[in-house]
Amino acid sequence: MIKRLTLAGSAKEIGKKHGELGKEQVVQSLDLYERLFHGYQNITWQEARERALVHVKAIEKHDPSMLEEIEGIASGAGVDFEDILALNARSEIALAGSGPSFSDGCTAVSVYPPLTNDTIIAQNWDWKGEQEKSLLLLDIEAVNAPKITMVTEGGMIGKIGFNEAGVGICFNALITDKKSDQLPIHLGLRAVLNSYSMSEAIAKIKQKQIAAAASFLIGYDNGKDAGMSVNVEVSPFGMDYVSGEDGRLVHTNHVLSQKVLQDLIDMNELRFEDSMLRKKRAEQLMLGALVNNERIDEDTFKSWLGDTYNAPNAINHFKNEAAPTHRQMETVFSVVMNLSKRTMDLCVGKPSENEFVSITQEGHYGVH
Questions:
Q1: d(Cα 48, Cα 83) in Å, to the nearest integer?
Q2: Torsion sign (Cα): 202, 217, 320, 131
Q3: Is 80 part of a structural domain of the chain?
């Protein structure tokens, strides 16, 4: 089972405990990304650290406590600040240089009221299978921020999760030709999770604050029988809302917004035979449920995430030996978050092969 850590106190204290108790997972992340940066970008780890440093000014301007938390992780794990900073800027580092870009792939989905009773967001995280060993489930109780429950890679302070205010986030990486020195994507995810409402979350990402392109699927349920989700494509040039007018959201790993494409080129070389087909299949599954008047709940989402149609490039992704090495990904974990109930169902590994475990912010587990 995934290691679960409860982290509370100041940003430095939260980070230090993360580094101490999750040191094994931090080391796993450092090892993987050092090899990937060298193999794909032909850069050394020292060069990766230097690339990460260009983001310090933007992080400090946005939220200095993020740097303190990164410093704490480094101290707790016995590594350098620049090592942990490089992990948190790993998407931006991967998008620079002359080698092939690499990026985690995912299928993110949401259906919200009135099509469902609850606001539910979900996704598969498709990446290098060995990175399953780096996974941590964090409960974070920071000062002046809502309590967060988040699945992340060791050493990274932002990823996929929800908070006690009912805000949750899923995301898809997007490979494009440009980036900036602004806030790294994964710290943008944490910024959303540090928010008490949808409007606060959007305000933190709406301009040119995010250093690279990504899709943020954000849900918010206010606990008063009102909830919705939006899909935002962020970029160094601003953001745009995409799809969802009919209460359904699906995003994979290609850019949808024509506004975003005015400034960026989509560099995902497998978008036609992988990303676009996964999106179309997810939309087909959603439409089938609606046409057949099926009840859509957490179990429905689990079945969608476990779909193996068109394998290996299925929603439940299998490693494709025929793809370029840097694009050989598989589903590492799946998550379904009911923001109305403040619960998460988590499957480590492929949902077609493994069970989901229910998680609440109180820390109770239950196998579904």
A1: 9
A2: positive
A3: no
